[in-house]
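call fold target=Polymerase nucleotidyl transferase domain-containing protein
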Amino acid sequence: MPFAIIQCGSTARGDTNANSDVDIICVWSGKSPDFTLLIHQYGELTFYSVETIRRMRAKGSLFLTHLDVDGVLIDGDKSLLEEFRGFRPSASQVRSLYNNTARTISNLDWFPDNASGELWLCDVLYVALRTCLYCKNAAAGIYTFGYLDALKARKLNTNQIATMALLREGKYRYRKSTADFSNPRFDFKTSLAAQACFAVLSKPVKIVRGGKTDWAKLSLRDYWGERQIERAILNNEHQDDEFMLKIKHHNYNKRSLKSDISRIVDMHKFTN
């Protein structure tokens, strides 16, 4: 059961931002290792089998390029790094990822009209626009995964970079304060979303304050489907504390979250 422990987040790049992610993953092969023991030894980990890594390669995952560029081996079998060594997705795969993510942003339409909804929008847009940013850079042969470095590589101007930094601040606040939205309010303006979208997508996107979930159209059983359920919960259309806890640790709950989405959507389809 060979395994490799790899650090790959902002701190692996030497980012001194106090809010920088500490992302540590475990790639393993053969018989699965003792996950509990590894977590006890190395802290919070996300686990990927070699089979999963190979499926990600086939789909053109930019995350594997991120691992290749920024990953630092902490411990274990370094030969497992060969699974993604030098990996770069094809142009068509990058284009597909960009188009799908940009479409998701365009289809957001609205956010909950409350403080938690404002921060939720910052979080979702940060994740989605960052993906689009990395795709645009990758299409130009640029593989840099530091947020500010990637913004500069796209030659965004000072005001646009400031807007994107503010979006990231909203994301930080959302993830830190989901249990207590009585914390000092984030200075959010609806125009922030429009400015951020235009900076990366180079086209206007309209996202309005307040709305209601169209359960009949919520068909995604993926990460973006999770975020729409989360939005409905923040909008007081559904109550599910367990789901909110799971989504905080998305990578650990991917399988159960898919069934949760189906259960919640079906519940509302039959009652509405």
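return ok
Residues 242 and 260 are 10 Å apart (CA to CA). The chain has a mean pLDDT of 90.
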